[in-house]
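Next up, a chain.

===
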Amino acid sequence: MISKPLNLQTLTHFFKQVFKNQSNVLSAFVIIIIGMLLVPLPSFILDLAFVLNFSFAIGIILVTMHINEPLEFSTFPTLLLIITLARLALEISATRSILISGHAGNVIHSVGEFVVGGNFVVGIIIFLILFIVNFIVVTQGAGRVSEVAARFALDSMPGKQLAVDADLNAGLIDEAQAKERRKSIAREADFYSTMDGGSKFVKGDAVASIIIALINIVAGFIIGMVQLQMSAGEAASLFTLLTIGEGLASQIPALVISVATGILVTRSNPDIEFATDMGNQLFKRKEVIGISAGTMFILALGIRGAFFPFMIVALGLGWWAYSKYKNEIELKEATEANRAATDAEQAEMTHHEKLKQKEKDNSPEAVLKLLKVDQIELEIGYKLVGLIDKKQNGDLMSRIGQIRRQIMVDLGLPVPPVRVHDNLAELGADEYQIKLRGCVIAKGSVSIDAFLAVNTGLVDPMAEPLKGTETVEPSYGLPATWVKGDEKDRAESLGYTVATPSSVIATHLTEAIKIFAGEIVSRQSLVAMLEEVKEFNESIVEEVSSLLSKGELLNILSGLLSEQVSIRDFSLVLENIANNAKLNKDKDFLVERVREGLSRQIASQYLVDNVLNCMTFHPATEEDMLKSLHLDKLALEPSKAKTILGQINQGFEEVSSQGLPPVLLCNGKIRLPLRRILERSLPQLALLSYNEVPTNIDAQSVLTIGE
């Protein structure tokens, strides 16, 4: 194998490939810093390193002033550590050169001579002042701000996360936007936490600089006299000059970096550029500038010997205040002129233009927009508008967001956004109605300045009635009374459940959504749910998709949700469908089989003290119903059917009055036909088959229906 000779072109190509990756560049930079701690640097390289340190510090402070929010410079804490390490390595290299040869490059020598100016006492004082400003003022302040910002960022994380969830539930943002916001919140907390630690590096760097300076002076004085055979004056002069030059050359960039740290962590408004924001807040008011000009003018007249400086500043501020006042007058006149011209233009709109606009509104494109129907609507009367207005402490919108989240948890149903608006033409002042795809599914009314006291059966019947307007609770049909604030405490003490108008509407909306959940579920939500399951169980999604179409699968989900069977464990629902769809693809068959597969989940929601208290049929009555089955329908004699339905209604009221969940347990063959008969009159009655009660759950009959 013949190797190519190593030449300049080959080396150039090699370094281009290596440094094409920014990670390689950063790695090389860190290795160079480590090398500076060990290897002496020539004077020219040391000069170049100090100049680069200056330029880097200036670049960083300019970046912090031009970004809008701290997260735009999220790498700053790590960069701060690397810069601090580089500056310490530079100070160590300079110290080595000073103590070995008494020379550390032209930059350090020139800075020392320029600042000292022949007076070493002045140079030492200036160096100490820079150290005090950097360590005590800037670094301490930036560290404290970083610490407080980190604490508040961490403390506010739960509230910000809840705000994102509320916006998501209210439909203001989608899942992708919510995910991005949560990620931004986490990044913000991480940034301020690391800035809190990063500020400690700056503080330590300032302390290290003064220690290194003291070492340079003392050690240099000893080395100069002992090793270099200098006199005490010559040693003090040379090494003090070099130490001050080295200290200033490193402390000035350190001060700039500290200021940049303070600017970054004290930013408060991410929507406006820093310079613009500060200028608007500081110089926006002409009155402040004018008063400042007057103050400077009075001081010019009162302080002898300082007339001209104060007067120059007073005249400058006065001219500035007058210019701002003149610009405001011109802007106001221009605005009024534009408004007058606009009003005149609108007044001169011809009849032809109005007809043209009307014709445009009646165009097919405009009419097509009217075909869009909101899936769920809540319409309210004009007196109830305050319930949705946050300025009037209205909490109905936030309650609706909570409703959507809670139904998703309870039923696994992705509830679409609820459109809330007033309907002054169809509703009374205190009325509301709930619509599903444009059709009214529930109505009610509330008293905006009262509380609804609901008798849930725990009130002593011998107690004195409440003072108020008697009514019926709209969600469950329970007796209730609208009471004023002074009667509210008494109602609660008597055992009434007291609700605000917004909670009454929210509860009614919740129940309406649950009752009509089978109609709310859509193909779009089904596709989203399938994609969610596919992320962790792709095989079951593919199997069900090969057996059933999306329409057939949607019908099964609709059948489950219409009886408030939760599909939150959608993967388990699909497993049960896949296990039975090979036998029979009939919708009713699959719904019943899925219910049996979810038996533990279904039965557990009706347990009281781990016991399923339920109504049951008399064996003879149940046998008659089984014999009457024809084409999956109950064909009972009208009189017998009326008697059974009446007893079921009566049993429903008795069980509910005892505070027990109304559950009717029956044979699996008559469960679905009976459900279809009762779903209009008793939608809240749960019908369970014997196969839907797991063996480890005790079922107790509290009431028998029939003979």
Observations:
- The chain has a mean pLDDT of 78.
- The longest helix spans residues 175-226.
